[in-house]
Amino acid sequence: MDSIDEVLGELPLPPYVTAEDVGFAVRALSVHAAEQWPEGLRCRNDRAPHPCRLHRWGRRVVDQRGLTERQVRLLIAEQEAPRR
Q: Rounded to two decimals, what is the model's pTM?
């Protein structure tokens, strides 16, 4: 865990995980994905050790909602697909 994570702790989960929360969580998982660096896996967005706080929060939200890994991948693909 990064030193800033030790100071700030985990982001709290919403009391009730809504569809809107899932949308935010899927976006966090997409934006804060792992990227290989010489010193190991880092967050693509903020270069914190992966998984960063927002990635962990997103994972906890989708887990709370009961989404499978396949469902999460499909939601990420939908968000990243070009809009027409």
A: 0.87
